[in-house]
Specification:
The protein is of the alpha+beta class and 509 residues long. Helices cover 34% and strands 16% of the residues. The chain folds into 4 domains: 2-149, no CATH class; 152-329, TATA-Binding Protein, CATH 3.30.310; 347-424; 436-505, no CATH class. The longest helix has 20 residues, at 254-273. InterPro entries: COR-A (IPR032171).
Length: 509
């Protein structure tokens, strides 16, 4: 019936569809389910989760394609009136569609709310994002403006992004961070959606008045003084972050800005990945062990700090450079997690599990039924020193084991209490009270229960002259009392490296 209706009328209101359903003896309460079923088949389009389109049913999908062609394929539109030529230029060169343009293109679309409904479709699929800050020469347009990176030209291969900068030279720059994928390549559409999400975030503005505006490379302004170049290649997405001025009204240190961006990238990638549930996304640094193609990466797992021991795919220790450390927090600055939503584990949790099972490792390996044996682990120098951690990390990272699968495995191996704590995210006991770094300095007894211990060395925050400073501390005794009583003056200011020889003793406390 709907197909016959579509021959004369490609768009129907929800009330009209309900009336047709009643004529066909279909109960009103099942109409939403029927529409969803035919939407999934592609027989019609009903965007029930888009508020402005919930009451509209497109019974002829080809009609919507033809409407979008008028904008995305300008030649399809035909003659361009003189008063629209400037707006078309902005759209083709900078990817900005202004309200005057799309109102003219879709004025005869016949939708309930007119052309704005078609814009909502673009927003729903992350093909466009509304911008509030635009180049000066676009101020003549007083209507809404939307950024559509998918219509931009691709950056020529001859123009490298690795060492290119905008007009302002950086005064400080972090190492390039990469977004890599389990597929080995960037999934189609991921980069465009990521750019749309970033443009929609408060504080991130695409600089559309520069030459660095391409479909596969976009320059962003972040809090006035920072710049981000996000570029797409075949195998990964690179993120370059640098500062163009020392002073800033936000009073944010460069390292803090890097960590904030890293966390927001994780959140944005998760939002985009919801469209591609079968793809695993990781932030990573390039592996320097092998120069062969394809490039390999060292993934940054949840809970990784600037003092973590990272290992590449070749099982070699990966040493972080000072520029790479900008991206990672100190252990005391890592936010405390409740059980991770997607079932992943932090590095700290894997180490705690490894410590608990090291005396019964063979029982756990037998439960895992993995492809390797303990003898294989023993042949690797680093793994022979930490066989339990090697087993857990291989199971989680190599075999794709989740928090829930590991908890079940530990329960089967006889570690009931450990399994329960892991499942509920309670392995890191006593951490919650230190989640806020601006709390009072904890007592030594509390510190002894703090999970981020590295032998006899711990990291704390001490208030000096009204400011909080991060310190590496070497404990001298285990008596209860305040930290300052226990330290006996042996406090060392923490530098980028956690080796004792790189600590500077603090004289004035």
């Amino acid at each position: 019936v709907l197909q016959k209706v579509a021959e004369d009328k490609p768009i129907l209101l929800y009330s009209e569809v309900v009336f047709i359903a009643e004529q066909c003896k279909i109960p009103t309460e099942v109409v939403p389910s029927v529409l969803q079923f035919y939407h999934q088949l592609g027989a019609l389009l009903h965007y029930a989760n888009v508020p402005s389109l919930a009451s509209t049913i497109i019974v002829e999908p080809q009609w919507l394609i033809n409407q979008l062609r008028l904008l995305l394929m300008p030649d399809w539109f035909g003659h361009r009136p003189d008063h629209l030529k400037l707006f078309w230029k902005w759209f083709e060169e900078r990817g900005v569609v202004v309200e005057e343009l799309y109102q003219e293109i879709w004025k005869d679309c016949g939708l309930e709310k007119g052309p704005q409904d078609l814009v909502d479709v673009l927003l729903h699929f992350d093909l466009a994002t509304e911008i509030n800050e635009c180049p000066y020469d676009m101020m003549s347009s007083r209507g809404r403006k939307y950024f559509m990176p998918c219509v931009l030209k691709v950056k020529p291969k001859s123009e490298s992004t690795e060492n290119s900068y905008p007009s302002k030279k950086p005064v400080r720059e972090a190492a390039t961070l990469y977004i890599c994928f389990s597929t080995g390549y960037v999934p189609p559409g991921f980069f465009v959606r990521l750019v749309a999400h970033m443009s929609d975030q408060e504080g991130y503005t695409p600089l559309l008045d520069t030459r660095e505006v391409y479909r596969n490379s976009i320059l962003f302004k972040c809090r006035d003084i920072d710049r981000i170049i996000v570029s797409e290649s075949l195998e990964s997405i690179s993120v370059r972050f640098f500062r163009v001025a020392e002073r800033n009204r936000h009073n944010i240190r460069f390292a803090e800005s890097c960590i904030l961006l890293q966390r927001e990238l994780v959140s944005m990638c998760k939002d985009v990945r919801d469209w591609m549930p079968c793809v695993t996304v990781n932030l990573a640094f390039p592996c320097t062990c092998s120069q062969s193609a394809p490039r390999q990466f060292v993934a940054l797992k949840p809970g990784v700090s600037c003092e973590s021991n990272l290992f590449c795919a070749h099982d070699n220790e990966y040493e972080l450079s000072p520029q790479q450390r900008f991206w990672l927090p100190f252990p005391s600055e890592i936010p405390v997690h409740s059980p991770v939503e997607d079932g992943s584990l932090t590095e700290t949790e894997m180490k705690l599990v490894a410590k608990e099972i090291e005396n019964d490792l063979s029982d756990v390996v037998e439960e895992m039924e993995m492809q390797y044996t303990l003898q294989k682990i023993a042949r690797a120098p680093r793994r022979s020193r930490e066989p339990a951690y090697a087993v857990i990390s291989d199971y989680v990272e190599g075999e794709g084991g989740t928090r829930y699968e590991l908890a079940q495995l530990l329960n089967n191996a006889g570690f009931d209490e450990l399994s329960r704590k892991l499942l509920k995210g309670q392995l890191i006991q006593g951490s919650q009270q230190y989640a806020d770094p601006l709390r009072d300095t904890p007592t030594l007894q509390q510190l002894m229960a703090f999970p981020m211990l590295n032998g006899s060395e711990i990291n704390i925050l001490i208030k000096i002259g009204g400011r909080y400073n991060a310190f590496g501390v070497f404990l001298l005794n285990d008596n209860d009392g305040s930290v300052m009583d226990a330290l006996k003056g042996e406090v060392y200011e923490r530098s980028a490296c956690n080796q004792p020889r790189n600590f500077k003793k603090v004289v004035a406390m």
